[in-house]
Amino acid sequence: MRVLKVLFSLAIVCALAVAAAAQDKKSGEEPLTRQKLKIEPDQRYLMLATQKTSTMQKELDEAGSRGFRVLVGSPTSTSEMAVLLERVADPASAYQYKLLATTKIATMRKELNEAAQEGYRLLPRTMTSKDGFLSMEIVMLLEKAHGSDKRYEYRLYATTSERKMRAEIEKSETEGFTLAGMVSRGEHMVIMEREYRQGQTLSQLP
Predict the structure, then answer these.
(1) pLDDT digits over 59-113, tens only?
(2) Does 24 fall in a domain?
(3) Which uninterrupted H or E stretch holds 84?
(4) CA-CA distance, 143 to 157, in Å (whole number)?
(5) Which of 33, 106, 153, 203 is the most exposed place for a label (fewest CB within 10 A)?
(6) Residue 21: which H helix or E strand, with range?
(7) Coil, strand or helix at 87
(8) What is the pTM assigned to this prediction?
(9) What does the alpha-carbon distance between residue 165 and residue 169 come to, in Å, rounded to a whole number?
(10) How far is 120 from 141, CA to CA, in rounded Å?
(11) How many domains, in total, are found in the chain?
């Protein structure tokens, strides 16, 4: 009987601990999802900094809707990213942003080109790498201007060989691509960009 009482008491304690942890987590997360950026009416610049890419995306969406445009991005530590914005646009013609973060080159290539087909363009000054779950993540920001009919295509090359990188860059340049940026995480990754117009097919490009 005494053993049963002890086991019953332990079960209650464990249940209460789990409930308390869940409540703490809930109370710690919900205010963040409801919290709005504190921006003064005459504020010209805005700094965003966070470790979570999902949080950064939400804050960029809000900042863009309030007339801010990204100037530059930079890592502040191995796991945190900061973005500096300037108020430049009327909310009616606001800029839209898409944040991409992945450890895989193939995934980044796919997502980058999918976003580019929607009118987003890479912001080279925001390219960085930061600590991910298992390895270094590549992080990029893309921007979409209101009413723009421009579309872009991207090629990504990742290598530790300077000779191979140079050859890939020169080959892409003969096909109308220009060098957009480079980011490193042990190996070096270059991004080549080519512009076309909405309604124009890639086969129509020179």
Answers:
(1) 999 999 999 999 999 877 767 889 999 999 777 788 999 999 998 999 999 999 9
(2) no
(3) strand 81-87
(4) 22
(5) 203
(6) helix 2-34
(7) strand
(8) 0.74
(9) 6
(10) 9
(11) 1
- 78-88: per-residue pLDDT in tens? 678 899 999 99
Helices and strands of the chain, counted as H and E runs: 4, 10
CA distance 53 to 24: 22
67 secondary structure, DSSP code: T
Tokens (6 digits) for 105:
């080159």
Query: Sign of the C-alpha dihedral, residues 71, 125, 131, 22?
Result: positive
95-104: b (≥16 Cβ within 10 Å) or e: bbbbbbbbee
127 located within any domain? yes
Amino acid at 78: T
Bridge partners (DSSP) of residue 76 are none
In a domain, 102, yes or no: yes
DSSP conformation class of 47: E
Residue 160 belongs to a domain: yes
d(CA 206, CA 194): 11
Class of residue 39 by CB neighbours under 10 A (exposed 0-12, middle 13-18, buried 19+):
middle
Q: Which domain does 154 fall in, by range?
A: 40-204
Q: Which two tokens stand for residue 13?
A: 């304690």
Give the model's pLDDT for residue 200.
60
